[in-house]
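Supplementary Methods. Inverse-folding protocol.

Structures were first reduced to a C-alpha cell string of length 192. This string, shown here, constituted the complete conditioning input.
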C-alpha cells in the first residue's frame, strides 16, 4: 500500500503529490472530501448526480490550480473544495432558477480570488460546450462514451451492452466516437 493511502499523511504531502501528477493522491482527496460536498448539495435540494458533477468540477479546479506554480493554497484542501463547490452549486441554481432557502454553510467560507472565479467560469463554459457536442453526437456514440467515461465500464462490458463482437470492436468504436466528439467540440470552441 502506498504512503498516500495511509491515514497519517499531511496536507502538504498531498498537495506536493498532486502537483507531481500522482493520481493516487488526487483519488484520495476525491474520496476523502466527497461526503462534505454531497451534504452541501443534498441540503440545498441537489441530487446525487448533481453532487458528483459539482464535486468533480471542484476537484478539477483544485488540480488545475495546483499545476500553476504561482498558485498558493492558503487553506485546507477540504475548505477550498467546499468554497469552489459552493460557488459552482450557487451558479447552477441561478441557471436553473430554482427557488431555494439560503444555502447552509457547514464550515467557514473562503472567498475565491478573481482568478479562481475566472477559471471556474471558463471551466463551466467548456463543460457546456462539451454537453452540447455530446447532444449533437447522437447514438450509439453518446452511449459508448458515457459508458466508458462516466459509468467507467470496461471495454468488455461496453462490448456486451452495445452488441459489439469483441473488445477491439468496442475500442475502435469508442475511438471513432471520441474523434467525432472532439470535432463537434472544436467546431464551436472559440478561445477567449
Amino acid at each position: 500500500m502506498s504512503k498516500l493511502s495511509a491515514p497519517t499523511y499531511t496536507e502538504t504531502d498531498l498537495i506536493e503529490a498532486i502537483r507531481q501528477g500522482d493520481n493516487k493522491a488526487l483519488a484520495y482527496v476525491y474520496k476523502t472530501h466527497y461526503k462534505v460536498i454531497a451534504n452541501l448539495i443534498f441540503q440545498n435540494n441537489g441530487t446525487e448526480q448533481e453532487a458528483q458533477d459539482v464535486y468533480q468540477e471542484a476537484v478539477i479546479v483544485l488540480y488545475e490550480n495546483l499545476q500553476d506554480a504561482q498558485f498558493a493554497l492558503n487553506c485546507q484542501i477540504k475548505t477550498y473544495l467546499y468554497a469552489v463547490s459552493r460557488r459552482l452549486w450557487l451558479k447552477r441554481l441561478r441557471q436553473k432558477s430554482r427557488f431555494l432557502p439560503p444555502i447552509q454553510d457547514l464550515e467557514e467560507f473562503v472567498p475565491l480570488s478573481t482568478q479562481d472565479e475566472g477559471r471556474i467560469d471558463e471551466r463551466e463554459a467548456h463543460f457546456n460546450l462539451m454537453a452540447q457536442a455530446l447532444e449533437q453526437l447522437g447514438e450509439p456514440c453518446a452511449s459508448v462514451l458515457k459508458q466508458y467515461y462516466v459509468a467507467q465500464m470496461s471495454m468488455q462490458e461496453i462490448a456486451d451492452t452495445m452488441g459489439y463482437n469483441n473488445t477491439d470492436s468496442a475500442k475502435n468504436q469508442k475511438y471513432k466516437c471520441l474523434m467525432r466528439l472532439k470535432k463537434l467540440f472544436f467546431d464551436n470552441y472559440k478561445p477567449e
